[in-house]
Amino acid sequence: MVLLYWSRGLYNPSRLRGLWQRSTTIAFGNALGVVGFMALLFVFRLQNFSRGVMLLLYGFSTGFLIFKRMIKRWYDRARNRKGEDLRHILLVGGGDMAAKYLLALEHNPYYGFHVDGYLAPYANPDLDVRYLGGYDKMEVTLDEPGIDEVVVALDAAEMHMLTRAFAACDKHGTRITMVPFYNDYLPARPTIDVLGDCKLINIRQTPFDNILNAFIKRAMDVVGSLVLIVLTSPIMLGVAIGVKLSSPGPIIF
Question: Which of 92, 136, 210, 238 has its CA at 20 to 30 Å from residue 37's CA atom?
Fold first, then answer.
């Protein structure tokens, strides 16, 4: 089960994964584990296990694990409100993308992020965080202890500064994340394909790109067709009899 949880990303320390996502991961992982265990029992012909007990095991284990996650989430948020266990952020950029990032943090304070300051060509009075200087101060700022993560929120005209930001973070071993200037056009969970040296971001997808959704649609088509055929069969039978009685020849032509 540990390997199964790990493969589903349950042990990922990301603060941005909500309780609902983790709960569905636990429920899905436990379901796979129970089904796999029952399959092993069937293969080895061990019939002395009650399916009711397996269902109880699934229910209790899922419930207790979700409850544990709820308690941990409450504890972490209580510490964050006290200013403990915060993740200190250096914001690179002072334009619209930076303002949007700060607004998102303001609306979601329970994630435990604290922006220590931002770097930009000039100070922006609309940003309610400390101005640390221009982009040339990046190396000096990262030399100081306390920065856990760099968030790059550059506008389109400043994309040439990405190389410097990546190089500085690689040198200091600092985690880096990015708010792209085309943020408004991205879905919540974009997928990336690789074509040679090109990374292709799938921005717009249809629901039927998902094989499960396509299967459900096809199943609904088949089941719906069968139901309609059964419901309309008396009418079609009456029409066929009427056609046969009113004119010679085959019914279907």
Answer: 210
Q: Are strands 191-195 and 198-202 parallel, antiparallel or unpaired?
A: antiparallel
Contact between residue 169 and residue 143 where contact means Cβ atoms under 8 Å apart: no
Strand arrangement, sheet containing 87-92: 131-133, 113-119, 87-92, 149-152, 175-178
- Token reading at 230: 């059964």
- pTM of this prediction? 0.65
Q: Give the domain ranges of the chain.
A: 2-81, 87-202, 208-246
- Per CATH, the number for 87-202 is 3.40.50.20
Residues 146-174 have pLDDT tens digits of 899 999 999 988 988 999 999 999 999 99
- Which tokens sit at 176? 């880096």
Sign of CA dihedral 179, 185, 187, 192: negative
Q: Do the beta carbons of residue 85 and residue 110 sit within 8 Å? A: no
Do residues 143 and 92 touch, judged by C-beta distance below 8 A? no
Six-digit token pair at 33? 């584990």
Q: Give the pLDDT confidence of 186-199 residue by residue, as tens digits.
A: 887 788 888 888 88
Residue 114, C-beta contacts closer than 8 angstroms, at least 6 positions apart:
86, 87, 88, 89
Distance CA 178, CA 201 (A): 15
Rounded CA gap, 251 and 150, in Å? Answer: 75
